[in-house]
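hiii so um. not sure if this is the right channel but i have a protein structure encoded as tokens and i wanna go backwards to a sequence. like what aa goes where. can anyone help
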């Protein structure tokens, strides 16, 4: 899928003074985690972003024209304090967005990074090695909901969970065998 770059990004790219940057925002209940693939802190979109450098990577993001769910994996080398998010928060189904942007020569984000992937956090896998913790956050596309089986069934028991007095499904056998005379 082609992307339209803003004139500001095109100008900076032509100058040869730009560098690409990934921005990742994972929205946890206790607060958003905003990271970028550069060094140091930066400000973009009215928010502060923490540099993770080469410790932050995003696996290949595949775009297809069909209505197929494709996920993405964000990898991060973090600290034990970040591990508490994975263990102590209900993160599944929470939004996560990955942008591709560019920094100008003064290391400021050039206007309008574009969304590479937007989805919902699914699973965080971690591996500890001494003081270092390695995370893999699997993010699923919103289309994954189409692949899941419905949580509701057309049964009397299921209907009564919502409406205890409803007897519709009990009467279905009578309705099926009902003979109607038309005049």
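sure thing!! here u go:
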């Amino acid at each position: 899928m082609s992307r339209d770059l803003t004139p500001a990004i095109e100008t900076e790219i032509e100058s040869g003074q730009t560098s690409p940057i990934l921005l990742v925002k994972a929205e946890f209940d206790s607060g958003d985690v905003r990271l970028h693939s550069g060094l140091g802190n930066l400000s973009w979109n009215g928010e502060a972003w923490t540099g993770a450098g080469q410790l932050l990577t995003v696996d290949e993001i595949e775009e297809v024209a069909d209505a197929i769910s494709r996920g993405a994996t964000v990898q991060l080398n973090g600290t034990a304090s970040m591990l508490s998010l994975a263990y102590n928060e209900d993160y599944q189904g929470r939004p996560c967005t990955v942008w591709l942007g560019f920094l100008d020569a003064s290391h400021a984000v050039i206007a309008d990074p574009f969304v590479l992937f937007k989805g919902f956090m699914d699973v965080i896998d971690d591996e500890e090695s001494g003081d270092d913790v390695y995370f893999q956050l699997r993010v699923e596309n919103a289309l994954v909901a189409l692949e899941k089986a419905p949580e509701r069934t057309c049964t009397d028991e299921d209907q009564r969970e919502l409406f205890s007095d409803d007897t519709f499904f009990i009467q279905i056998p009578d309705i099926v065998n009902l003979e109607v005379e038309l005049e």
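oh and The first strand starts at residue 19 and ends at 28.
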